[in-house]
Amino acid sequence: MAGVAFLAISTGFAVQMHHSGRAFDRVSTDRLERQLAIENEAQRLSLIPYEDLAGVVEQRDPDSSVQIQMEPFETDSRDGLHLTIQTTVHSQTLQHHVWRMEPNE
User: In this structure, are residues 78 and 101 in contact, taking their beta carbons and an 8 Å threshold?
Assistant: First the structure.
C-alpha cells in the first residue's frame, strides 16, 4: 500500500514538473520570438538611409507590437538619431537601441 501511495505521489510530482517545464518553455519561446522581432527591426532600420529614417519611423503602424521612439541628439559637429525599439512580452519590456549618425558631407 505504501508503494502504491509513493508511486501515485511521485507520478503526480513528475506530471506537475512536466507541465511547469512546458509553461517555462512557452514563455521563453515567446520572449525569444519578440526579441528576434525587435532585433530584425533594428537591422532593417540600420539599412535605411539616414535622410529617410525619420519618415520611415513616422509611417509605421501605431498598432504594431513593436514600438519605435526616435530622439534626435547632437555630438560636437554632427547630428544623429537615437531609436529605442521596444515590445512587451508577458508583462516584460524588451528594448533594443540604435544610434544613427548623420553622414559626413
Answer: yes
